[in-house]
Amino acid sequence: MAAAAGSARLRRCVVSPAGRHSASLIFLHGSGDSGPGLRQWIKQVLNQDLTFQHVKIIYPTAPSRPYTPLKGGISNVWFDRFKISNDCPEHLESIDVMCQVLTGLIDDEVRSGIQKNRILIGGFSMGGCMAMHLAYRNHQDLAGVFALSSFLNKASVVYQALQEGDSMLPELFQCHGVVDNLVLHSWGEETNSTLKSLGVSTTFHSLPGVYHELNKTELEKLKSWVLTKLPGEIETHNE
Q: What are the Phospholipase/carboxylesterase/thioesterase domain coordinates in residue numbering (predicted)?
């Protein structure tokens, strides 16, 4: 039961909506970062916080654990990887534990009165990969998923899970820098086309000249997409 208990201890940074809270967005950082770190990075890129009138944004921080690509060094990572590559096995044990922990965050929002189809989850790099595992394996009734500079391994269990089901699936929004030299653009493209072939409605934006980084254009595209998936309520009174 350690995983379930972990959800209560997951540190998080929250940006409250400007108006009435009617939807939630869970934004997962990349390896070695933190919730506050990701929020600050976005703020630097946009020259302001990412905010919505009705959407609460939750930036959780991954627990510290030994990370194999750092030769076992301790890092804030959602799961372990054998190597940063799309042609090796997934470290399923650590992925599955974190799916349980992050389910606790979704459950917290539902308990607060937010419906599952009013919750989005996504992230940058490893965070996007984690979000795809969480949504497509465990929470297919979420509003949508976004993955920035992210990929799934060629033999991902996410693909296996989608082959077995025929339910309505959350839409996927992806952006990827064309000159990303850590997570190759082709890995992101391949992930998108494989998910599309398995019945996921997908969007893929290639960002010319962009490396493994957040970019103002993609964050503005993301914000527009969030508002299509989580529209605000129609106001019945005059402002």
A: 14-226
User: What confidence category does residue 234 fall into, taking pLDDT thresholds of 50, 70 and 90?
Assistant: low
Domain assignment of residue 234, yes or no: no
Measured between alpha carbons, how far is 228 from 203 in angstroms, rounded to an integer? Answer: 13
Flag whether 100 is in a domain.
Answer: yes
Output the six-digit token pair for 192: 């998108």
Report how many domains make up the chain: 1
Q: Which two tokens stand for residue 67?
A: 């990370």
Q: Which amino acid is at 145?
A: V
What is the domain range of residue 18?
2-229
173 domain-assigned: yes
CATH code for the domain in which residue 204 is found = 3.40.50.1820
Cβ proximity of 58 and 27 under 8 Å: yes
pTM of the model: 0.93
Q: Which of 44-48, 125-129, 160-164 is the least confident region?
A: 160-164
For residues 121 and 139, give the distance between their C-alpha atoms in angstroms, rounded to a whole number: 10
Catalytically annotated residues: 125, 180, 212
Is residue 102, in this structure, part of any structural domain at all? Answer: yes
